[in-house]
Design brief:
The protein is an all-alpha fold and 125 residues long. It contains six helices and no strands. The protein has helices at 2-14, 21-36, 40-57, 63-78, 82-99, 105-118. Helix 1 crosses helix 2, helix 3 (40-57) packs antiparallel against helix 4 (63-78) and helix 4 (63-78) runs parallel beside helix 6 (105-118). It is globular and about 35 Å long.
Length: 125
């Protein structure tokens, strides 16, 4: 709870040039709270910013970046924006398999999410 409350303050104090993984993580948790509360429209901008910052600070192949992309896709899905969610999940799955391996828990979660959205029998859960 403390992380959720102080996330905006940390972002304001540090500014975009001094982002660190903890600040990014706190924003992601705030977005998760909005999504869990059934407010995907509030979560999506936070997830977008989290993903952009993860890519910039941590790199495109970082496991936190892959998770951030998956989270954004699931927020799109919750908002009824499946057409935007599916390409993100396809890219995330390919990257997870390449970076983390086919049997990693994040890879399996992304595979399940994609299978649920596409009902594609070629995607093996």
């Amino acid at each position: 709870m403390t992380t959720f409350v102080f996330a905006p303050l940390l972002e304001w104090m540090l500014g975009d040039d001094q982002l660190n993984p903890d600040t990014i993580k706190s924003r992601n948790k705030r977005a998760m709270s909005y999504l869990a509360a059934g407010r995907p429209a509030k979560a999506i901008p936070l997830y977008k910013r989290t993903l952009a910052d993860c890519e910039r600070v941590l790199g495109a192949g970082n496991s936190n970046t892959l998770r951030a992309r998956n989270n954004l896709a699931m927020a799109y899905q919750a908002a009824g924006r499946t057409a935007e969610a599916i390409p993100l999940l396809e890219r995330t799955l390919a990257d997870c398999e390449r970076v983390l391996g086919a049997n990693h828990r994040d890879t399996k979660a992304t595979r399940r999410n994609l299978a649920a959205l596409t009902a594609d029998p070629k995607i093996h859960i």
